[in-house]
From TrEMBL:
Residues 251-264, 290-299 have a biased composition (Low complexity). Residues 278-289 have a biased composition (Acidic residues). Residues 239-299 are annotated as: Disordered. Pfam families: ABC_tran (PF00005). SUPFAM superfamilies: P-loop containing nucleoside triphosphate hydrolases (SSF52540). One of its GO terms (molecular function) is ATP hydrolysis activity. It comes from Streptomyces natalensis ATCC 27448. It is found in: Membrane. Residues 5-264 form the ABC transporter domain. It comes from the Bacteria. This is ABC transporter ATP-binding protein. GO terms for cellular component: membrane. It is a multi-pass membrane protein. InterPro entries: ABC_transporter-like_ATP-bd (IPR003439), ABCG_transporters (IPR050352), P-loop_NTPase (IPR027417).
Length: 299
């Protein structure tokens, strides 16, 4: 796999997605260089997955601006989809428990060979195309840190028999086969132990250090210097009401300033705004996120 840095820069200003019953998220601001690790933190229902889908061109934004690798959203959604890939997103990019690891890899390599290249590439000798597919798969597995020899039945292991971290690595490897400039991973640390969480972040830091921009939804951001991997800039984006962001609009994760986002105030004079109930804000946010996902069909 080509390890030349080719990640996509990510910028957003006042970015928001709205469903029929309210905002999934709004007023998100991001500035991330190519090869950054962007950690999207927030409670369940705060619009984290909607933000991931919107920034990868799979959900239409309602306000603000954003660019992925210089491609503006929502005007260039199709182009953004072509340079991004999803991993571990329920209902969109998830593993089939009835299939084996090998079946998933072969299917993804076949799709990449059929639709991911030029017509000229399809006309090359079959042996050459097979060798290229094997190289793509091997490179993706190595980058994701998935060693097939350690699995219970090797490449014939069913997905249902994988440990959670192994399943995450497989999902990431499948996404990497397409050579995306931005890799978006949902529920990165869901139900992982502390040790598994450190290893997951080490994998994602490694991908970012190799040049791919990584956007990862999480419940806890990566700890600074404790996951055993060197990396570049780490940008933390918080979803949810602004009161969930401690100590002002910025915080520091690792060695980088994090750009945070939350619900925008309804007035330019916050001191005159009527007090709001935190629980009501969270309920509205959850309903908006659920509606936005339903509108997009999680596709």
């Amino acid at each position: 796999m080509d390890s030349t840095p080719r990640g996509a820069a990510v910028t957003a200003t006042g970015f928001g997605v709205k469903g029929p019953r309210g905002w999934a998220f709004r007023n998100i601001g991001i500035t991330a260089a190519p090869g950054s690790l962007i950690a999207v933190q927030g409670p369940s229902g705060s619009g984290r997955t909607c933000l991931l889908l919107a920034l990868t061109g799979r959900m239409t934004s309602a306000e603000g601006t954003a660019e992925i690798g210089g491609l503006p959203l929502p005007r260039k959604m199709a182009a953004v989809r072509s340079v991004t890939a999803l991993a571990h997103v329920p209902g969109v990019a998830e593993l089939d428990p009835a299939l084996t690891v090998g079946e998933h890899l072969r299917e993804r390599a076949l799709l990449q060979g059929r639709f991911g290249g030029s017509l000229r590439a399809l006309l090359r000798p079959r042996q050459e195309r097979r060798a290229e597919a094997r190289a793509l798969v091997d490179g993706a597995l190595e980058a994701a840190g998935l060693d097939l020899e350690t699995l219970p039945k090797g490449i014939r292991t069913s997905v249902r028999d994988l440990e959670r971290l192994e399943a995450l690595r497989l999902s990431v490897a499948l996404a990497l086969i397409g050579g995306p400039r931005l890799l978006a991973v949902d529920d990165t640390d869901l139900k992982l132990s502390d040790d598994e969480r450190r290893r997951a972040w080490a994998m994602l830091r490694g991908l970012a250090a190799a040049g791919t921009t990584v956007l990862a939804v999480c419940s806890e951001p990566p700890a600074d210097g404790t996951d055993g991997a060197a990396g570049g800039e780490v940008v933390l984006v918080r979803t949810g009401p602004p009161e969930a962001v401690p100590d002002g609009p910025k915080t520091v994760v690792g060695d980088a300033d994090a750009v945070t986002g939350g619900a925008a105030p309804e007035t330019d004079a916050p001191e005159q705004a009527a007090p709001q109930n935190d629980a009501d804000d969270r309920d509205d946010n959850e309903e908006g996120a659920a509606d936005a996902l339903a509108e997009a069909g999680r596709a």
